[in-house]
Amino acid sequence: MRVSTELRLEGALYMPTRTVTATTNIAVNDYTISVNNAAVAVTIRLPNPLTFANRVLVVKRHNSTSTGNITLLTFSVAGSLEMENSAGTRVDSFTMGTTATTRRYTFQSNGTFWELIGC
User: Which domain covers residue 45, as residue numbers?
Assistant: First the structure.
């Protein structure tokens, strides 16, 4: 469906959520990835931002006791920088923190790279 003016919803909006415990690629139907990794290092690979223009993704720690590194890695073409980190710098990967303000990231593809739009 393509809406060219305004979309108004009355009721609930349901978005898919998936909990992962190991390294994974974000799938076509994913919206929120909840990483339940305890103290284990996990890599989450975002899809090609060129293929998924305007798509929104959320990656978060499953709970506050998780201490393992979560590395966000982008689909990379010839070394291009495909993602914004929390400092607004374009990079090809970064590791999520464990503090309350760095446990959840929301990205949106602008058709060129994944912009960090919330954390």
Answer: 21-118
